[in-house]
Design brief:
Layout (H helix, E strand, L loop, with lengths): L10 H27 L3 H10 L3 H11 L1 H5 L3 H26 L5 H9 L6 H13 L7 H14 L5 H20 L1 H8 L2 H19 L11 H14 L7 H11 L1 H7 L1 H14 L7 H21 L3 H5 L27
Helix pairs in contact: 1-3, 1-13, 1-15, 1-16, 2-11, 3-9, 5-7, 8-9, 11-12, 14-16, 15-16
Length: about 325
């Protein structure tokens, strides 16, 4: 990981975050289509191959900025997380429950202790941030190791096994940020890169063949391998329109994450009602699943509409750095740390 941990935001990290978020959109669009019209074999296999890596990569990227975050005073740290993580998680959980007809006292209570919607990732992030501050003097690699160990003994397929596994990569990201030079040097060795690639391909292929590898601690080496490959290769893509677009998605990943599924399901429901649903809809679902959040992200980045800003942060708690231009490259959201 090139760069320092003290402050300079590195574009390729946002590009990687953006790519991971877009893969989440692709997954949800294809899953919704599969439930409605049936399987799409090539796409289903592609999603299965990437399944072990998407969410751990996002957790790893959130963890990278943890050392800088926990260096803040406690008040600034926790108010920031309340504004940029807890608030959008609570608000959008209520919006989703209302839109899906699932709003009830029990479901509202579950927002706190279980996460009843697809926003469970934000719920996990909240928990990780809550424990990270009191553990800030504990070497993050120890915490990551404890997460992997816990995932090995917790019941398979359970929420807490998933949480332990993803916590390992959140804190592994923090460790890599603290040892950026060592990590960069190691993944620059050809034999390390080759081993990382083989590990990642092996775990992805096992998942395609039906082996249960998702969030399983015994297969964490494959995710580490995938991280090594992308962290070595992605910075070498340079800067162009594609990477700039991915950076934009990555900088506003919270918007794409919480907004994308509603337009996808709305278009698919309309097509199903009209009797025209089919696999041909996938490009349309991707267009609305990326385009509508993209439009909202553009409005959010400009900070011109208080109502839009309030959808993703609580300004009364979190003050933006002075001198940061509207829509500038310093803007961050809850998925970046």
């Amino acid at each position: 990981m090139a760069g320092d941990t003290a402050g300079t935001r590195i574009g390729w990290l946002d590009s990687l975050r953006g790519a991971a978020i877009l893969l989440v959109v692709l997954l949800h669009a294809s899953e919704a289509l599969r439930v409605t019209v049936g399987p799409t074999p090539g796409l289903d296999q592609f999603n299965l191959f990437l399944e072990p890596f998407r969410m751990p990569v996002l957790m790893f990227l959130s963890g990278i900025l943890l050392p800088r975050s926990v260096a803040k005073p406690a008040r600034a740290y926790f108010t920031g997380k309340l504004s940029l993580v807890a608030w959008p998680y609570l608000l959008w959980s209520l919006i989703i429950l209302t839109a899906t007809g699932g709003l009830s006292p029990g479901a509202v209570a579950q927002i706190v202790y279980l996460s009843p919607t697809y926003l469970w990732y934000l719920w996990f992030i909240l928990i990780f941030y809550a424990v990270a501050y009191p553990l800030r003097r504990v070497p993050p690699l120890w915490v990551a190791g404890a997460g992997v160990a816990a995932s090995l003994v917790l019941p398979d397929g359970g929420r807490f096994e998933t949480m332990a596994f993803l916590a390992a990569f959140f804190f592994f990201g923090a460790w890599c940020a603290l040892h950026a030079g060592t990590v960069e040097r190691d993944i620059g060795r050809p034999w390390v890169l080759a081993l990382a690639a083989v590990s990642a391909v092996t775990v992805g292929a096992l998942n395609v063949t039906g082996r249960d590898v998702l969030y399983q601690g015994e297969f964490a080496w494959g995710v580490v391998g995938a991280l090594g490959v992308v962290c070595r290769l992605l910075p070498r893509l340079g800067t162009h329109r594609v990477t700039a677009a991915l950076e934009f998605v990555g900088r506003h990943s919270i918007v794409f994450y919480v907004v994308h599924l509603g337009p996808i399901m709305g278009v698919l429901a309309l097509a199903d009602t009209l009797g025209v649903a089919g696999t041909w809809l996938l490009p349309v679902l991707l267009l609305v699943g990326v385009g509508i959040p993209g439009g909202v992200a553009c409005m959010y980045s400009r900070r011109e509409h208080a109502s839009v800003t309030l959808l993703f942060e609580l300004p009364a708690l979190k003050r933006r750095p002075t001198g940061a231009a509207p829509g500038g490259r310093r803007s961050r959201d809850s998925l970046t740390g």
